[in-house]
Amino acid sequence: MLIASPTGSNICSRCIDQAQQIVKDENGSAEPSFSAFSSLDEIPKPSTIKAHLDKYVIGQEQAKRAVSVAVYNHYKRVMVQDDIEEIELEKSNILLMGPTGTGKTLLARALATFLDVPFAIADATVLTEAGYVGEDVENILVRLLQSADYDVEATEAGIIYVDEIDKISRRSANASITRDVSGEGVQQALLKILEGTIAQVPPKGGRKHPEQPLVSINTKNILFIVGGAFEGIEDIIARRRKKTLLGFSTVDEEESRLKGADLLQVVEPEDLLQYGLIPELIGRLPVVAALEDLTREALLSILLEPKNALVKQYHKMFELEGVELVIQERALDAIIDAAQKYGTGARALRRSMEKVMQEIMFELPGWDKVKKCTITRSVVTEGRAPKLN
């Protein structure tokens, strides 16, 4: 088989194989393993990681600090583990807890972008035990492999975010006596790849077949971040705290201070066990970070401040058409009011903005003489036309 180049020259497949062998012999038989960083000094400090996260994730100070330290320790462990014999450093997999739309997925994605490592997102709700209808747990690794352009060494230094981990909690805290193929069974299947194992995965995904070539992926250095809303766990935490504080005069004072999402900040392994996570899985998620409900001030900051802020995006799109976009403060308040009614955190902001801007964006390319477009509160609340100048 001849392979043609753009210059018109050709090379046969045999020459390619021989050239590859020559290069391999010259460089030595041992191929260097992929590493996100070449030395310990190159690993960003926790303060540097957090500073980057601040550009994308508003608020959530405690969560960003916990994640920054965990990521720094993880890649430091990857760099030095072969040089340390007397101590075995364990992985710092992360559990993110918090209501929907508070930034769990964004936090993981911003991390991977900053570190320039392969990144994949998986949904725990579609996973089942091997042999049942649904996705095998190992298919998570296929997505990471595809994200790394099928570079196995790069894959083994990547980050995987598993969302909706709370949806695979077992039916009760007691051991299940019936088959639970998408709950406790998936938790059991996740244990090995979270801790570190050599998994055999089909490179294109799907089920394994005897005639299908498999790729070996070592998960020892893959950082797993799992997230979930854990609805109702606040009640479990409150009951546990009430028992602990019973008989002391500070009970009412403590319980009045810690309400709702604040209770997630004091979550303990026994609360997760009561919720339905198995002990082995809890043990493999040593870093727990809780994200708080977003306040009005936080939602306003999300609209205006991050690098990917919605208002900045719309300003740029209008600028490309030669029109200056002005959104009045009272209009922004109305957009936040509409978003809070949906109860889905920051996700609802885009929905509210799109609802307001869709018709305006439709008309925008036809505004030949318009130089300025002002969005008032009545545009948001009553659907009126914007002011054009």
Describe the secondary-structure layout:
Elements: E1 2-4, E2 10-12, H1 13-27, H2 46-54, H3 61-80, E3 94-97, H4 104-115, E4 119-123, H5 139-147, H6 152-155, E5 159-163, H7 184-195, E6 198-201, E7 215-218, E8 223-228, H8 233-245, H9 251-257, H10 269-275, H11 279-283, E9 287-290, H12 296-304, H13 310-320, E10 324-327, H14 329-342, H15 347-363, E11 372-375, H16 377-381, E12 387-388
Parallel strand pairs: 3-8, 3-9, 4-5, 5-8, 10-11
Antiparallel strand pairs: 1-2, 6-7, 11-12
Helix pairs in contact: 2-3, 8-10, 14-15
Numbering strands along the chain, what is their spatial order in the largest sheet? 4-5-8-3-9
Order of helices and strands: EEHHHEHEHHEHEEEHHHHEHHEHHEHE
Mean pLDDT: 82
Shape: globular
Give Rg in angstroms.
26 Å
Q: What's the count of strands?
A: 12
N→C terminal distance: 65 Å
Query: Which percent bin holds the helix content?
Result: 40-55%
- Give the amount of beta strand, in percent: 5-15%
| Uncertain residue segments | 29-33, 172-179, 249-253
Number of helices: 16
Strand-pairing-aware structural class: alpha/beta
Largest sheet descriptor: 5 strands, parallel
